[in-house]
Amino acid sequence: MLGLSIACAAAAVAWIYLLAGHGGYWRTSEWLPPVAAEPDAWPDVVAVVPARNEAEMLPVTLPALLGQEYPGTLTVIVVDDGSSDGTGEVAARIGARMSRPLRVIPGAPPPDGERWAGKVWAMAQGLDAAGPARYLLFTDADITWEAHQLSRLVAAAEGDDRDLVSQMALLRAATGWERAVVPAFVYFFAQLYPFRRVNVPGSRTAAAAGGCMLIRRRALAGGLAPIGDALIDDVAMGRMVKRQRGRTWLGVTRQVVSVRPYPSLASLWRMVARSAYTQLRYSPALLGATLVGLLFLYALPPAGAVAGLIALLAGDTGPAALAVLAAGLAGWALMSLSYLPMLRLYRLSPLRAPGLPLIALLYAAMTADSARRHYAGRGTEWRGRLSPGPGRRG
Hints:
- By secondary structure, the protein is of the alpha/beta class.
- The protein has two domains: 2-23 and 281-386; 45-279, Spore Coat Polysaccharide Biosynthesis Protein SpsA, Chain A (Alpha-Beta Complex), CATH 3.90.550.10.
- Helices cover 47% and strands 14% of the residues.
- It has helices at residues 2-21, 58-66, 87-97, 118-128, 149-159, 176-192, 195-198, 233-243, 265-279, 284-313, 319-345, 356-375; strands spanning 45-51, 74-80, 102-106, 135-139, 143-145, 164-170, 212-216, 248-258, 381-382, 385-386.
- Strands 3-2-1-4-7-6-8-5 form an eight-stranded mixed β-sheet, with helices on both faces. The chain has a two-stranded antiparallel ribbon with strand order 9-10.
- α3 (87-97) links the parallel β2 and β3.
- α2 (58-66) runs parallel beside α3, α10 packs across α11 (319-345) and α10 (284-313) runs antiparallel to α12 (356-375).
- The termini are far apart.
């Protein structure tokens, strides 16, 4: 019991650090400011939508992108990456009804001998077709936009001299499993890449959110080849811009929304497992450390609280039992406190917060399964296409 009390106390101290000293990752406090002053001239923007088998999504999302109330010139390019469901034809029909210009580009295979991840190659083809526009907006086919959001993004980039302005789209949380898993997905992402640190010029923390990335053309002078084989394109994009000493910003929003459904645990499991081991750079050591870290931070405090309570109910009122109970409850309470802002962002009950340890265990299993999939040769997929991992040509 003494060893367990020491371990629980260490976990509680770790949670004190995470809340007080880890970039305020849990606060969900990074929001686009209101437009204080409009640019003297609104720059041209080209939006690039990589799309593979998205005929079902585009009628829901593409009109919102084409209907942006943006004072400048906005052109939308849909890159139809080898779809088999008529994605290109659907996009063209939608574009014909809208006033904004839309181009549909049929995707081509990457050049022989070059390593490209599927989505990044589609993005690169859109970039090549974009012309000299000052800004590129990379967005996904499942993302819908409020009418003035592009104006807010451009005003923020111009007003604060940012090379990359990105927002974490509000993911769908309609079903029971989505409400359980999705907020935690964003929470863990922010824990890995605290948004406040991303937004500090010169900091080493770099990330972006792939559904909404507004980037200056000058930051793409070398094209997307430097991140061509990146399987997590948004984080790679953020790192590329910061390596050039560019200024980036990443925040949360309710105005950019993903409408892609994940109705079952299996679909959510695939969403997480397809890239979790990639995030760990295919390192067994990092995998082991991650799993141990998840158990230490999320499973140990409630386990200690339960063990201490059982000991007390059994008549053990010694200092070790009391210490286990107190430390376990403290760590569990701090953990739950850290989850409240994310639940509030998703408009979910705060009573869900104490259940975070169970969700963390689920994510640990998904991460382990991601490694299993990699070693089984299933790797990372984008819309059904296997992307090149280490030692694999795309």
